[in-house]
Automatic annotation (TrEMBL):
Subunit organization: Tetramer of two alpha and two beta chains.
PANTHER family the record matches: TRYPTOPHAN SYNTHASE (PTHR48077:SF3), TRYPTOPHAN SYNTHASE-RELATED (PTHR48077)
Pathway(s) annotated for this protein in UniProt: Amino-acid biosynthesis; L-tryptophan biosynthesis; L-tryptophan from chorismate: step 5/5
Function: The beta subunit is responsible for the synthesis of L-tryptophan from indole and L-serine.
Catalytic activity: (1S,2R)-1-C-(indol-3-yl)glycerol 3-phosphate + L-serine = D-glyceraldehyde 3-phosphate + L-tryptophan + H2O
Name this protein carries in UniProt: Tryptophan synthase beta chain
Keyword vocabulary terms for this entry: Amino-acid biosynthesis, Aromatic amino acid biosynthesis, Lyase, Pyridoxal phosphate, Tryptophan biosynthesis
Matching PROSITE patterns: TRP_SYNTHASE_BETA
CC annotations in GO: cytoplasm
Lineage: Bacteria, Pseudomonadati, Pseudomonadota, Gammaproteobacteria, Oceanospirillales
CDD domains listed in its UniProt record: Trp-synth_B (cd06446)
Enzyme class: lyase
Organism listed in the record: Marinobacterium aestuarii
């Protein structure tokens, strides 16, 4: 989906400080040339295949299908990308663009840490310096990812302002970019921010939907009847959905983080239930969670990667036009969906992706058995072991950590 001068309906645009205008224009020019350059696109394709392991499979789920007694379930396995999430598709694209622009340093922000790890990996592979901003609260929730970023040679900067989550990390990354606009590239991890980021990130992620299209035709001889994806910033959702945007027979469903419930600060529901309102922040216009004074609100989700106060202008627009149906799943439903996939299909999805599963589990029993549903498994759940261990109240995990710590302190 092409923007109209950076706008998608009433959302998007570019609301940035004067100091960033020149580097934003340079990025825009570089992207506009690269996106139609067959050599660049071939380089991206090669790295997606040889480094990240694409194409990722479309996996049928016979046990889940039998259990639900409705439509047939298929999973798009972005968890099988190198580094365990769809974030890799975008960093490969932007990383190769950075090389093309001749810059030597990347700045990134991260919530769940998946984009941070992916950025650190691509920086190592392409020989770039890398600084990653991460909310101090997210660092606590996703420390294993922080550990890997550091081992990969990245500098991880804890952000202690505001709610200490993704939104605050994004502010700091923008500040860094403003301080060094010509030497550094801001490698934004989702389809948000000023133009051309939403469109560029969505385009790099559209490889997901293009593969689903080809795989569906090959594996069951038709397009899917419905596609479900979780919506944090909106990049995996835009990536799987955009290649189907003109296929009206394919229902597109985005699932936001319902968190602990609908009270302010307990969730990250911007589009469903009209809980967000239009605003301009962090360089672009979209639906934000904000109070009567226009102040951005705190958010919560069991999944750090969905805990964002804004949303892609592309999804906000598709929600406006009715092309995407938005819904939300709360933390309990998400844990139920997570365990269902684990035990019925032997797949450990990220808690973010489990939102998409939860949204689909709600609808599938009412669908007829000849229908096909594709759920995007945007990432794998290894990183969530701490959160899951406490959610399932595993009796052994805490004592194991204590024993481990005691040994480390003795050594
Ligand atoms: C596994 C996974 N899925 C989904 C998301 C949400 O991002 P987006 O909405 O941009 O796909 C994240 C973000 O960190 C993630 O790590």
């Amino acid at each position: 989906m092409q923007s109209d001068k950076g706008f998608f309906g009433r959302f998007g645009g570019s609301y940035i400080p004067e100091i960033l205008h020149a580097s934003q224009q340079a990025l825009l020019d570089a992207w506009n040339q690269a996106r139609v350059d067959v050599d660049f696109l071939a380089d991206v394709d090669r790295e997606l295949q040889q480094y990240s392991g694409r194409p990722t499979p479309l996996t049928p789920c016979p046990n889940l299908t039998r259990e639900l007694g409705g439509a047939q379930v298929f999973l798009k396995r972005e968890d099988l990308n190198h580094s365990g999430a769809h974030k890799m598709n975008n960093v490969i694209g932007q990383g190769l663009l950075v090389k093309r622009m001749g810059k030597k340093r990347i700045i990134a922000e991260t919530g769940a840490g998946q984009h941070g790890v992916a950025s650190a990996l691509i920086a190592a592979r392409l020989g770039l310096e890398c600084t990653i901003y991460m909310g101090a609260r997210d660092i606590e929730r996703q420390y294993p990812n922080v550990f890997w970023m550091k081992q990969l040679g990245a500098t991880v900067v804890p952000v202690t302002s505001g709610g200490q989550t993704l939104r605050d990390a994004l502010d700091e990354a923008l500040r860094d970019w403003s301080a060094d606009p010509s030497g550094s590239h801001y490698l934004l991890g989702t389809a948000c921010g000023c133009a051309p980021y939403p469109e560029m990130v969505a385009e790099f992620q559209s490889v997901i939907g293009r593969e689903v299209r080809a795989q569906s035709l090959q594996q069951f001889g038709a397009l899917p009847d419905a596609i479900y994806a979780c919506v944090g910033g909106g990049s995996n959702a835009a990536g799987i959905m955009l290649p189907f945007i003109n296929d009206q027979s394919v229902e597109l469903v985005g699932v936001e983080a319902g968190g602990r419930g609908p009270a302010p600060g307990d969730h990250s529901i911007r589009l469903s239930d009209d809980l967000g309102s239009p605003g301009i922040a962090q360089g672009f216009a979209t639906m934000f969670l904000q109070d009567d004074q226009g102040q951005l609100m705190e958010t919560h989700s069991i999944a750090a990667g969905l805990d964002y106060v804004g949303v892609s202008p592309i999804l906000a627009h598709l929600n406006d036009t009715g092309r995407v149906r938005m819904t939300a799943a709360n933390d309990d439903e998400v844990m139920h969906a997570f365990l269902a996939l684990l035990r019925l299909e032997g797949i450990i999805p990220a808690l973010e992706s489990s939102h998409a599963v939860a949204g689909a589990l709600r609808d599938i029993p009412a669908m007829s058995p000849d229908k096909k549903v594709v759920i995007n498994i945007s990432g794998r759940g290894d990183k969530d072991i701490f959160n899951v261990a406490s959610a399932v109240k595993d009796a052994e995990f805490g004592p194991f950590l204590q024993r481990y710590l005691a040994r480390e302190l003795q050594a």
